[in-house]
Amino acid sequence: MPMSKRLGVFPASTGTPTAGIARVILPSDVERDNYVTQCLRTGRVSIATEFGEFFNDVAISLEALNHLTFPINHEKFGSQVVWLRTTGHQKPVIVGILINTDESPALGEDVFSLLRESANGLVNILGDGKTGVITVEAAGKSSGTGGVILRVSNPQNDALLRLIICGDVDVQVRRKIKIKTNRHWSLVVGDATAANNIDTELGYVYNEGLTYIDEWGNKITTREEQIQIENSEGVSILLTPELLRIKLGETENRTIEVNEQGISLGTAGGSADPAVLGNKLKEWLENVLRSIQTLTVPTALGPSGVPINAAEFASAAQRLDTILSEHNTLD
């Protein structure tokens, strides 16, 4: 190639180019994966210049290294790079990367893309300044590949990840969602712009239990072997392995308790009077009414007759079934 047609810059004194374009190459005597790992670790690559020169162990800028594409084999070329050779140094230094002819030079005005692709996967960060949208894509091409990891930490374990979203959150998952914490989680719903705002909150503290509170004053709490539900009017339900208690407000004598001793209606902690068994009461009243119907008393003239209203007692005995509930029973 005539000297005038070459891209490099040539000092008049030596004719040796001090700048030019080259392609990244893969030396024939190295294994590709090991070579790429070494290049990324040392920041040095091999190139073939437009002047037919070959250089190994060429320093490359960090910015260029982050955008570098390595050859897929010994017969192919990698990225086009721009190199400089300073006075007193025979080996060039890579300072930039040119877009290959098979690459799109730009996605559009105010748009950027950071793309990496291999035989196993693809990672792309796409930013659109016109719409204010950033798209992050991590796509594996086989099972076990593909993923996004975001790690925030410090030695005191009090690092913070905060996302502020003035709109909606739309999460679409094809398999499962798993969220794990060592101590405490909470989900709060409320209007942060409203005065005297009352939030609805669902939270859990490890070894303490779960709590739900809403803006209407309803509350649900769980503890070890205990669940309690209550509202703002004092109506509550308490459930433990030994006790079921239903309390209808703060008024006395409006409590239902079920425990190993039985069922109590009225006073919390146990009612003062025992309940009446319906069938036993009916049987006892039948005997009483039967005895009244045949009642006689001694008089001066001899035993009296049966009560003149015995028929009314007989009629009452026939209606005793009506005192028994058709829905509720007691033991």
Spatial strand sequence of the major β-sheet: 9-10-11-12-13-14-15-16-17
Largest pleated sheet: 9 strands, antiparallel
Which residues form runs of ≥5 with pLDDT under 50?
1-12
Structural shape: rod-shaped
Please count the beta strands (DSSP E, at least 2 residues each). Answer: 19
Query: Helix count?
Result: 4
Question: Could you give the distance between the termini?
Answer: 111 Å
> What's the CATH topology name of the domain at 3-98?
OB fold (Dihydrolipoamide Acetyltransferase, E2P)
CATH class of the domain at 3-98, anyone? Answer: Mainly Beta
* Protein structure class: mainly beta
CATH-scheme architecture of the domain at 3-98: Beta Barrel
Helix content: 10-25%
The helix-strand sequence is EHEEHEEEEEEEEEEEEEEHEEH
Strand content: 25-35%
Write the SSE topology.
Blueprint: E1 19-24, H1 32-42, E2 44-49, E3 54-59, H2 62-66, E4 80-84, E5 93-98, E6 111-117, E7 121-128, E8 133-140, E9 184-189, E10 200-205, E11 209-213, E12 219-223, E13 226-230, E14 235-239, E15 243-248, E16 255-259, E17 262-266, H3 278-293, E18 298-299, E19 302-303, H4 310-318
Antiparallel strand pairs: 1-2, 1-4, 2-3, 4-5, 6-7, 7-8, 9-10, 10-11, 11-12, 12-13, 13-14, 14-15, 15-16, 16-17, 18-19
Write structural notes for this entry.
12% of the residues lie in helices and 31% in strands. With 331 residues, it is mainly beta. Among the domains are: 96 residues, OB fold (Dihydrolipoamide Acetyltransferase, E2P), CATH 2.40.50; 83 residues; 46 residues, no CATH class. Strand 14 and strand 15 form a beta hairpin. The termini are far apart.
